Every structure is written in structure tokens, then in C-alpha cells.
TrEMBL record, chains A, B:
The keyword Methyltransferase applies. This is RNA methyltransferase. It holds the Pfam family MRM3-like_sub_bind. The keyword Calcium does not apply. The lineage of its organism: Bacteria, Pseudomonadati, Bacteroidota, Flavobacteriia, Flavobacteriales. Residues 96-233 form the tRNA/rRNA methyltransferase SpoU type domain. Gene3D superfamilies: 3.30.1330.30, 3.40.1280.10. One of its GO terms (biological process) is methylation. Residues 5-81 form the MRM3-like substrate binding domain. Signal peptide: none annotated. InterPro entries: Alpha/beta_knot_MTases, MRM3-like_sub_bind, Ribosomal_eL30-like_sf, rRNA_Methyltransferase, SpoU_MeTrfase, tRNA_m1G_MTases_N. Belongs to the class IV-like SAM-binding methyltransferase superfamily. RNA methyltransferase TrmH family. GO terms for molecular function: methyltransferase activity. Keywords: Methyltransferase, Transferase.
């Protein structure tokens, strides 16, 4: 049974300020919830139409109509869980670090987190203008990768000023990545969907790289930032 | 002014069967509409809150409230246009052909069309189970690339049976793409989001390729199909 206070809490977690206040975030879908239950994350509450056979004090059985009422999805998927937001670990800077300069679209950030997981990028560093990684739409797109990537929100200018790693950035006018010698350790900066890398960050970039266009002159003016990140991370890793 | 019959037509175009019946599709947003007006597509009607200074018989000035009523977007963007669905050109098979086996997500298809445009892929061949490329969500994600890629919906098994090009396919267990010799001319098959390439198509693949995973064993089990397509097309083109 869903109480009014449950509904109020869940609905509030759609907003970043309440996620920060309660230090909680929402996850939907049986598969992702099961993956997160096996991670080091701490479950706060599970609302489900079918029992997960976990410690009963955290599990609340609900009806499909109740799930529909609390779900953020058009087609709710059997369960919704609340997890505690984990503490941020310090940035290791041991290998390749991905830095995001004001990525706004939750789907893009979710896809990029999944790419970090695939390519073994331990540290994802986001400017404070980047969409919150505990936004439900981001969580939906990460498919559980959120537990395996260390995500920090920092003053990106300060971070890049302090790092000893070489700084690469994606720019339309950069050198083609296919013929650039890429290091194992470094920072790759990806810019905002509409405006690219900001002026303050651009001056800190050591090497501008780009993905060549093969279509005719009229072809699309840019790639989506998540697909561009996919290609660039692949280039760094392929050696 | 919006008449009831306009509203009825626009609303119906959300559904594939009415798009086919009328041979019309919807485009939203000033930037994309302007791009399409400069293409070989034929405008059927333009509903806009600010005049585009085009032939007045096709332009209907509306209020923001009216736009909100007909828009498919949460935040409507000043204009909505109806264009005629162009005739499909025959498949050239002159270079690299991308084939999609039952891609279901409109955002993924839109991103893939934009990738084809970027990488100069002229022919995109879709199985009949693939989401319709004139779906409003696909159009939204293509950013105008829809006019520069020749998209055909075919019996994919039949098409692959008949082509003389070498057929490559993305498979988890495939040979790493980084060490595979890739031809300039060929077909690359990408499979469905949940199930990958279907059994009937798998037997027609000459060479299975994959993108290696660099994260630890627990890392995400797969990449999103649009990001995987980005990496593979980049590999075919980088030479």
C-alpha cells in the first residue's frame, strides 16, 4: 500500500533540490533495480508489483495502478526503487578522464555514462552546469552503469587548471582524430550540445581534435554529443 | 487561424497509417523547417507564429496557444510544417550501405540517420520491422539529415540474399573491429536494441564484428545501438 507521504517523497525526487535535500534518487525497471541491488548502493525503499524476495522491511508491494501513479515513465515497468545517493570518491586521474562542459540533455548524459563504463573510464568529471546524473531520465539511460563510474561535479575551469594530465577537446576545427597520436592518460573535454566547449575552457585545451565529415558539404553540421563521445573514446582506446 | 480540419489532419499524422494514406509528415522547429524548405522536399503547409516570408498560400499564421495545441513537443518551437513524403529512390549499393534489422526506438533511428549523413552513407536500408523514419520523434532527432539519406524499407532477408556486396554485422562475439580489414564497399547490419541481429539475418552475415569492452567484467553488457553504429561507421571510414 502506498501512503500519501510515500507519493509525496517520490514525486519530490523528480527535482534536483529534493534529491540533494534527501540524498535519494529514483530507479525504475526490474532489470536495472536488480543490477543496483547487487552493487554497493544502499536501497532506501522498493515499490513493486511482484516481490523481489529481499528483506521485507524495504519492500512495499503495490498494484499496477499505484505504480502508474508514482512512475515517471509512460509505460511503467513493474517496480520503482529509491536508493541513497552514494558519496563521491575523489578523482583518481589514473588513466583517461572524461570531462563534460555543460551537457544539458539527460539522455546524452546517460548514454555517455554507459560509454564510460564500456570503455573503462573510471572518472567522469562534469561542470556544475551539466545535468544532474541522478535525474530519473539519466538513470533510465545508464542501464546500471551509474554504479561503476565515479561521477564528480566540479568547477571545471579549476579542475583543468590543476590537472597535470594533457587536455584534449572536441572541436569542429580540430585536427582529425584519426591521425592524432593519443595518450593512455589524459583528459578529454566534450562541450555543450548547442554551443560546444565554452570560451573559458577552450583556452585550457592543449590539443583540439575532431571527427572528419565524409558526407557532402551540405551534410549535417554536427554529430550528436553522445555519438561523438563514442567515436572519440573508441579512438583513445583502440591504440 | 487553425481550422478543425487542419487540427484533425495534423493529429492523424502522428500515426504511421495516416502518414502513408496522406503521404505527408510533420516537422517541427524553425531551424529544421528552414533546412527542409531548401531541400528538394515539397511543402504542404506551414503553421507558424512568425512569418517565414514564403509563398503565402502555404503559410498559416497561428498563435502560440494554437501551436501548443497541434505540437507533439513539450516545448513547441515557433513553427510546425507538413511536408510531402518523397518517393524512395532505388538503392545504389555504390559504397557502404547501412542495414537496420528491427530498430524500434525513434531516437536511435534519428541519430543513425544523422550519422549516415555525417559519414556520407547514401543508402540506409531498413527491415519492415524498423520504426518509420517519418515518425515525428525520428524527424526531431535527424536535424534535417532525412533529406540527404536515401532510406528504403525492404524485406531485409531478400535484400541481403540478392546483394553482391560483402555483408558485415555487429555481434557481441564478433572479431574486434580494430583489427578487422574493412572494405570501402559493403553492407553493415545493426540489430535490434534488445535482441540484436535476428536468426534469419545472422546466417547471411559474412563477417561478424564487435567493439571490444575495456571496462571490468561487470561493466555494461552492451552499448546503445546508435553509439555502436557511430563507432563502426567511423571504423569503416577511417581507413
Amino acid at each position: 500500500m502506498l501512503s500519501k507521504s510515500h507519493i509525496k517523497l517520490i514525486t519530490s525526487l523528480k527535482q534536483k533540490k529534493y534529491r540533494l535535500q534527501h540524498s535519494l534518487f529514483i530507479v525504475e525497471g526490474v532489470k536495472t533495480i536488480k543490477e543496483l541491488l547487487q552493487s554497493e548502493l544502499t536501497l532506501y525503499a522498493l515499490y513493486t508489483t511482484e516481490s523481489f524476495n529481499i528483506d521485507a522491511k524495504n519492500e512495499i508491494l503495490i498494484t499496477e495502478a499505484e505504480l502508474k501513479r508514482i512512475s515517471f515513465l509512460t509505460t511503467p515497468n513493474k517496480a520503482l526503487a529509491i536508493f541513497k545517493i552514494p558519496e563521491v570518491k575523489s578523482i583518481e586521474q589514473g588513466g583517461l578522464v572524461l570531462a563534460l562542459d555543460a551537457i544539458r540533455d539527460p539522455g546524452n548524459l546517460g548514454t555517455i555514462i554507459r560509454l564510460c563504463d564500456w570503455f573503462g573510464i573510471k572518472d567522469l568529471v562534469c561542470s556544475k552546469e551539466t545535468v544532474d546524473c541522478f535525474n530519473p531520465k539519466v538513470i533510465q539511460a545508464t542501464m546500471g552503469s551509474i554504479t561503476r563510474v565515479n561521477i564528480s561535479y566540479v568547477d571545471l575551469e579549476l579542475f583543468l587548471n590543476k590537472t597535470s594530465l594533457p587536455i584534449y577537446g572536441a572541436f569542429m576545427e580540430g585536427e582529425t582524430v584519426y591521425s592524432t597520436q593519443l595518450p593512455e592518460k589524459g583528459v578529454l573535454v566534450m562541450g555543450n550540445e548547442a554551443n560546444g566547449v565554452s570560451k573559458e575552457i577552450e583556452v585550457l585545451i592543449k590539443k583540439k581534435i575532431s571527427i572528419p565529415k565524409f558526407g557532402d558539404l551540405q551534410a549535417t553540421e554536427s554529430l550528436n554529443v553522445a555519438t561523438a563521445t563514442a567515436i572519440l573514446l573508441s579512438e583513445f582506446r583502440r591504440g
